[in-house]
Amino acid sequence: MRSGWRRVPGPRTWVLALVAACLVGACLEPEIVLQRPTYDYIIALDITQSMNTRDMALAGVRMSRILYAKRLLKGLLPRLPCGSRVGWAIFTEYRVFLFFTPVEVCANYDALEETLGRIGNNMAWAGGSQIARGLFAGLKVASEVPGRPDFILITDGQEAPPINPAFRPDFDGTPGAVPGVILGVGSDSLSRIPMIGRDGRFLGYWAANQVPQTDAYSAGRATSEAHDLLYNKAGEPIRPISPSGTEQLSSLKTAYLGSLAQETGLRYRRLDSADSLYATLTQRAFARPEPVRTAVGFAPAAVALVLLIWLYWPRLARKPKLQPQRGRQRGTDFPKLPL
Fold first, then answer.
1. Residue 95, SS3 per DSSP
2. Where in the chain is the domain with CATH 3.40.50.410?
3. Distance between CA atoms of 75 and 113, rounded to whole angstroms?
């Protein structure tokens, strides 16, 4: 053997070295910057009493509207692409309270999930529910947040006390200036509204004599005296709405929410499944293309797997041949015995 002779690595050695290099590269968790669609939302959840109505079902389990909405929102978070931002808000009375400005979903997933889980009716500071004024207030909040996120309101649309259409507030903003969606939740049929204490205990159901059945503002001014009547902009007297007798019951106010969406330039959709929620909030109209750091560690790992399969599959697939046993023919090992 010559002095200094070295063995030249064969193809198998080079392949294994390449596999090792790919695995090391995958462990380093490499990232590249890609242009991807992201989404930026303030999502306001109605927490008024009617949202306790148990007329929704998920996976065969009957639940309240507010719990149904929270379950679907929780499932939405991991489906949104990294780089998207979400901020939670609540609606009650006529105001929208923003917990925090939208934050990136992947880096803040645990905080978003934890905060969503704590949202409930015990946060309400008043028993009223003026949907139109609350929607207008939410749009104003969204317009003042840096980055101008889109606005989502999840509600059943029930005004409490009921509002006379003649006294409904006018939207003084620019329709469509803040894009967004009103998501209606609830059944089309009337259901009893549970009465829930601040400690979360069920106290019964609201009765007809416990809730206003008509618009108190116009009813208090409607008398037989002409000077006591209220008048609209056209100079026509405004008559109070007749008591419905069903304000202690609740259903999804689709027509009302649709009219509010049209007035403000928003879209209206019904919240009826996780897939419809995802499809609604990831529409192209809401997409904001941004450079996003994307993990690509799967690529070298996949290359390593392919190389290993290419290297070892022929050996694993090759069936070993059975070798015939060497031996003498029958009868040759023992002498014949005499009969």
1. strand
2. 32-209+246-293
3. 10
Fold of 32-209+246-293: Rossmann fold (3.40.50)
- pTM of the entire predicted model: 0.75
- Cα distances (Å, whole numbers) of residue 63 to 54, 117, 197, 199, 312: 5, 15, 17, 18, 54
Length of the chain (residues): 339
H or E stretch covering 304: helix 298-317
Please provide the average confidence, as pLDDT, over all residues in the chain.
83
Residue 158 has what pLDDT?
Answer: 92
Which one, of 201, 144, 153, 151, lies nearest residue 47 by Cα?
153
Phi, psi of 251 (to 5 degrees): -150, 170
Which tokens belong to 67?
A: 């719990």
**Cα–Cα distance between 255 and 262 in angstroms, integer?**
11
Q: What is the C-alpha separation between 104 and 86, in angstroms, rounded?
A: 7
Q: Beta-carbon neighbour count of residue 3 at 10 Å?
A: 4
Residues of the chain with pLDDT under 70: 1-10, 28, 31-34, 216-240, 292-298, 314-339
Cα–Cα nearest to 286, from 178, 154, 173, 174: 178
For residue 222, the model assigns a pLDDT of 45
Q: Where are the alpha helices (DSSP H) in the chain?
A: 11-27, 65-76, 109-118, 131-144, 216-219, 254-264, 274-281, 298-317
The answer to whether the CB of 142 falls within 8 A of the CB of 44 is no
- CA separation (Å) from 166 to 175, 234, 255? 21, 11, 16
- Which of 135, 250, 137 is closest to 195 using CA atoms? 250
Q: Is the peptide bond before 161 cis (omega within 30 degrees of 0)?
A: yes
**Amino acid residing at 312:** Y
Cα–Cα distance between 230 and 198 in angstroms, integer? 38
